[in-house]
Design a protein that fits this description.
Blueprint lengths: L1 E4 L11 E8 L6 E4 L7 E8 L1 E6 L2 E6 L2 E5 L5 E5 L6 E8 L3 H7 L7 E4 L2 H18 L4 H18 E3 L3 H19 L7 H8 L3 H12 L3 H19 L5 H7 L5 H12 L3 H9 L1
Antiparallel strand pairs: 1-2, 2-9, 3-8, 4-7, 4-9, 5-6, 5-8, 7-10, 10-11
Helix pairs in contact: 2-3, 4-6, 5-6, 8-9
Length: 277
């Protein structure tokens, strides 16, 4: 059982700040019941392994690895570990003056239970925050705030409302292809080939990709190509724009220029000039 409780600050100069952060393993007696109005901060409660339960409006929901509950301030909270398969559970309580609007703008108030599409990055961010709190307490408040925001940002990026297992597995297969898609983005993009690797139809691949990544497969490929092109523009200041366009997967420099301008607000030549002018 690891947990660190920090002093609640008034008028903090940070966007977000932790009130407590912790990690319980093999603690089947873990049970929490907070009535409405008992806690005035946000709470992300994430299951890394095992299972537990969350009660919502009298209905008990099971949480397993990769799933989480997000509470807003003042909400009633009732959750507990499974006795036969105790959860490995990690949490952070946090607050901030403008957090409420930020969370609502992103629709996080619409659901209580979530699945994280990519677990490792959130777990790493949480562990970094826990270690900072354990080792330095409040000696480095700016670092605590930065690490808390990293935990929140990873959650905002990867959390989706808890869905059926079938959908989650399909999205997981697609997400597992992202590094390879990014690496091979400059090659011709063949949708059916990627759908075959994910084990779904091309229609379902596009649908699940949009749900998981919040952009179409082609938009992802375009962003990846432009990212590589931007890197090459800076690393190879004397290279011809047309050559870079071709290597980035574009048929000609004119089309590359239009795509670059639409996404970056400037031409490739102007972008290069910012750093090599």
């Amino acid at each position: 059982m690891r947990q660190t409780v920090l002093l609640t600050l008034q008028d903090i100069p940070y966007f977000c700040y932790p009130e407590s952060v912790g990690h319980y393993i093999d603690h089947p007696e873990h049970i929490v019941l907070r009535e409405t109005g008992a806690l005035n901060n946000f709470n992300i409660h994430y299951v890394a392994a095992g299972k537990g339960y969350v009660e919502v409006d009298g209905v008990v929901h099971e949480l397993r690895a990769g799933q989480a509950v997000l509470y807003f301030p003042q909400q009633r909270q009732h959750y507990y570990s499974s006795e036969d398969d105790p959860w490995d559970v990690r949490w952070v309580h946090f607050y901030g003056e403008r957090l409420h609007d930020y969370m609502i703008e992103r629709g996080l108030h619409r659901n209580l239970l979530w699945t994280l599409r990519q677990r490792n990055s959130w777990e790493e961010a949480h562990m970094a925050l826990l270690m900072e709190a354990e080792q330095n307490s409040m000696l480095r408040p700016a670092q605590l705030s930065t690490l808390t925001y990293a935990v929140l940002a990873e959650f905002v990026q990867h959390a989706i409302p808890l869905k059926s297992t079938r959908t989650s597995k399909a999205e997981s297969r697609i997400l597992g292809l992202l590094p390879q898609m990014q690496q091979e983005a400059c090659q011709p993009f063949l949708l059916q080939d990627w759908a075959d690797m994910a084990g779904v139809s091309s229609y379902y691949f596009c649908k699940m990709f949009k749900s998981a990544v919040e952009m179409t497969p082609m938009e992802f490929i375009t962003r990846s190509r432009l990212q590589m092109a931007k890197q090459w523009l800076l690393e190879r200041p004397t290279a011809n724009i047309g050559q870079i366009a071709e290597e980035a997967g574009y048929p000609n420099a004119s089309y590359f220029n239009r795509q670059f301008l639409a996404h970056e607000g400037m031409t490739p030549t102007d972008y290069r000039g910012l750093y090599h002018g």
